[in-house]
Amino acid sequence: MSASRIGLILPSRSVSVLNGGNVWFFGGGAQDPAGYLVSGVRSMLIPSLLPPFPPQSIALSGVSERRRGLAQEKMTENGVFSRDKVLTIDTMNPTVKNVEYAVRGPIVQRAMQIEKELREPNCSPKSRLFGCICSHTQCVTLLPKSTTLKGVKKPFTEVIKANIGDAHAMGQQPITFFRQVLALCSYPELLNENMFPEDAKNRARRILQACGGGSVGAYSASQGIDCVRQDVARYIERRDGGVPCDPDNVYLTTGASDGIVTMLKLLVCGEGASRTGVMISIPQYPLYSAALAELGAVQINYYLNEEKCWSMDLSELESSLAEARKHCNPKALCIINPGNPTGQVQSRQCIEDVIRFAAKERLFLMADEVYQDNVYAEGCQFHSFKKVLFELGPEYSDNVELASFHSTSKCYMGECGFRGGYMEVINMDAEVQAQLSKLVSVRLCPPVPGQALMDLVVNSPQPGEPSHITFMKERTATLSLLAEKAKLTEQILNTVPGITCNPVQGAMYSFPNISLPEKSIKEAKALGQAPDMFYCMKLLEETGICLVPGSGFGQKDGTYHFRMTILPPTDKLKILLAKVKEFHQKFTQQYS
Ligand SMILES: Cc1ncc(COP(=O)(O)O)c(C=O)c1O
């Protein structure tokens, strides 16, 4: 371990040494020669109580120069301690600084600011004098009661957000059965009421029985509640036409994100040319690039083929792997299917090719299948990696290591706030799996209400049960509406000269190619912005439409895109698309 690695000093006894107005704290040394043991209570650190201490004697305590420099405190004139921050932009974990997450990046922050500006103007000292109409507490008191808040003038009255795959935030209604069971689990007194169907009550009783103390407020087993993992295993078996699933290989997670990051943590190690490399698609969902940056892994890009509806291309996989092997140790291949941000559904042939490739190249497969029910296009079908793996025969099913991920956040549920998810691991080395179980136990357990919800997703009402008809009606309505909006988005975008949109076969996004005039590219570069960021920012400022620039997901050099969700309600989606169309034409003219 390198000498500059930061150590965390845990509470024990700590020593402070005073030198003039400067105090250095350091702790953990029980037998410090200075002999000044302080409890950490600031009031004890009164200069007159401690003799002046020459800095050399601090070295005796065994604390390095660097450590002292980090924790220096100064006494200000009025006797208050002002302390240099231990945690500064220079001393913080550098890998965190490399993390980027476009889905909630600068465009979204600006959109939130604009929403606020629309509600209330910026107040200035002058406007305060005259009775400012903002909602800041100081100013509101100056307002006559009848004043209505209104904001700055913009060429639009609301921000329409199509930047994030958050279905409920866009007005999608929850599945009644799910919320009934969750309500019953949260407040079991309701089990005595007549307002809930019997199957919802039975389901809640079953979940509560499996919870510690009969409460969803208790911790669960770290891998997840037993009966939920069993239900997940049965669901996977049904989904995959009977391919067996061992509940011991199922881990319930805090959304799919948690499972993905946990798996990457297990995979990443090494230094220099032996550092772990992980292959991810470009464009990609930025959780992957962010997690790899945070873990200090090498991101290996493989490009999806836009001309062939964002399919995976074997020769591209091969060349990107060969190139990566020159400078890192490629260990894993991640696939998102159906795709985010590109909205494609990979064919069965493509999945077979990828599995064969992974087997040949000894790569661990990570299959992100959170959109497994979001398939809209005719002729497209979701094929799980696990099913295809087993259908390829024992040469593959006994050897290829696979982790696949699912979530309560997407599909027809859209319940991303509950943070439910699972991962299944296949052919994982037993010792590694023991490490995985240990790793998840450190964080105790995923949210129990999220686990309960995952259970309902994999064990939904069956024909003959009281809730079945309503459940099916709601599920079908949500998925049909998404399919309609997917089509509408593709059709309207393709009517705009300079925009080309692949069919939205699945998931919740379109990722159209936009041609940008040279002049706008130059102007963006002069401002230090990616050209599609420049475009999206202008779109936001001029129309109130919030999209994410393609550069946040990665794209081939010289191509530009934006990602747009298909989630806004149909009337808003139509307005949004019409505004994008108008804006694109205006933008093109302006910069031509
Ligand atoms: C491809 C993909 N994987 C994982 C996630 C994370 O989902 P969760 O909310 O389950 O963590 C998302 C969220 O948008 C996603 O699009």
From TrEMBL:
It is an enzyme of class 2 (transferase). Residues 194-578 form the Aminotransferase class I/classII large domain. Pathway: Amino-acid degradation; L-alanine degradation via transaminase pathway; pyruvate from L-alanine: step 1/1. GO terms for cellular component: cytoplasm. InterPro entries: ALAT1/2-like, Aminotransferase_I/II_large, PyrdxlP-dep_Trfase, PyrdxlP-dep_Trfase_major, PyrdxlP-dep_Trfase_small. It holds the Pfam family Aminotran_1_2. GO terms for molecular function: L-alanine:2-oxoglutarate aminotransferase activity; pyridoxal phosphate binding. The keyword Nucleus does not apply. Homodimer. This is alanine transaminase. The lineage of its organism: Eukaryota, Metazoa, Chordata, Craniata, Vertebrata. The gene is LOC112260666.
